[in-house]
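User: Okay, second chain of the day. Same drill as before: sequence in, structure tokens out.
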Amino acid sequence: MKRRRSLELLPLGVLVVVVSAVVFSASGDPARLHLEHSWGAPDAGHWLGFGDAGVDLGLLAAHATFRALVLATLVACFGFVVGTGLGATAGLRGGAVERWALRACDLVQSFPTFLLALAVLSAVRVPSRMHIGLVFCISAWAPFARLALAQTRSLRESQFVEAARALGSSSFRVAFRHVVPNLLGPVAVQLGTAAAGVVIGETALGFVGLGPPDGVSLGSLLEQGTLGMLRAPHVLAVGAVTVLCVSGSLQLASEGLRRRINQGL
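Assistant: Same drill. Structure tokens below.
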């Protein structure tokens, strides 16, 4: 059982180590063009080959993955902290506060985040990762709040919560001292799902041309793959496999984190 839990965290750990090693040790600009190697096949010096206008796919994939992971981690942590706190507080208070919290979650989740990002980023002259992160933060808290609220409903009638209230503890203290630690396991599994959603969302935005202006994104990598799909199929394979590895490893890690928290490891 311990070995299985370790294996669930292993893919993300290996991905982070490999990508960080390439980003911090390999010299060269991931957006630099080598026109003489345009759409070049993999060779001994460049294992992943070259893309459009001779972009080094190895450097581009590593830097794009690293930046996507950083963005996804920040957005997921923001959603986790804000959503868990709001959901736990609303669940403890109940009544109108709980109803309004659920309505806010419904309102946020009823509008697709990708469409919101398209609308907002289309109005920005030069979209950056900061703009993308802010757009995703608008809706990142809602799944965490809904899940935390549902868990708090079952916890608020527990004896230890009633005892804390009887001793005069405030709602804030009850929520963050007694309720939140007991719902971290079920809510933590949403971390990987939220992070994977950010990665997929950023990739889609980059694919349609609303990614970072430097062109270093997974969406840009996939776009190159579709442009050269017939003449250089390895470019599309690199992009697709990279996105699959990033999103899949995040999902596996979230499941491993949930198991560890539930069993007190």
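The chain has one domain: 30-262.

User: Thanks, on to the next one.
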